Amino acid sequence: AYNEDDLMLYWKHGNKSLSTDEHISLSQFFIEEFSASSGLAFYSSTGWYNRLFINFALRRHIFFFVLQSYFPAMLMVMLSWVSFWIDRRAVPARVSLGITTVLTMSTIMTGVSASMPQVSYIKAVDVYLWISFLFVFLSVIEYAAVNYLTTIEERKQLKKRGKASGMYSMDAVQAMAFDGCFHDTDVDMDLTPFPDPCEENETRTSQTNISNADTPRLRRKRSLKGNVGRIILQNNHVIDTYSRIIFPSVYIVFNFFYWGLYM
């Protein structure tokens, strides 16, 4: 009812006019500091009015968001790197892993957005989650590039083999139709010219004296048992090899700058 011509308000002792309990706490924030100030408010019909203000500086509890948002996001990004160690020909395994991590990151981002105020500016947690989502998304794109380049590479090798042998590859059924013999599909058929039937009979006769432990299939199984890791490394594409180093390195650098800048 009284404007500045009639009434002046001020803090008599400044910040000392405020007294709070030292043990006061909030569920989501720390009270860093508070200060007292005064100001004027204008109303067009009556004029200027004195106002008293108390300003609180708050700091959010980060540990709750670390458990609910940051730590799950880190695990999802690291889980997406597992696809770099899977054989590039295991399409269902790598695709399902990539899609699962992308959907999980989307769920985490939706849950965080629902629990935070709906504001128009970008928050620090939004920056972290979107960068993490980008890493997961790029891991899916990385396998798409690996699969495409692998297909092109196999087609080129197939054409080279066809030119060298004078014919293109054929499966076991087609080969059986030509020579009347059953062919194991696991055996690499390099499209060499078919052997002479007489030579084939002599070869079969000589192989009857060899024990079953020395058959090609058993020897192949024995070699696979001890060399699984080596075979996986040989079947990896060069992009996978670089991704195992680049993705973790860039993500560690991002976390270092993020926690140093915002926290």
From TrEMBL:
It catalyses: chloride(in) = chloride(out). It is found in: Postsynaptic cell membrane. It holds the Pfam family Neur_chan_memb. Keywords: Cell membrane, Chloride, Chloride channel, Disulfide bond, Glycoprotein, Ion channel, Ion transport, Membrane, Postsynaptic cell membrane, Signal, Synapse, Transmembrane, Transmembrane helix, Transport. GO terms for cellular component: chloride channel complex; postsynaptic membrane. The keyword Nucleotide-binding does not apply. This is GBRR3 protein. The lineage of its organism: Eukaryota, Metazoa, Chordata, Craniata, Vertebrata. It comes from the Eukaryota. The chain crosses the membrane at residues 62-85, 97-116, 128-150, 245-262. InterPro entries: GABAA/Glycine_rcpt, Neur_chan_lig-bd_sf, Neur_channel, Neuro-gated_channel_TM_sf, Neuro_actylchol_rec, Neurotrans-gated_channel_TM.
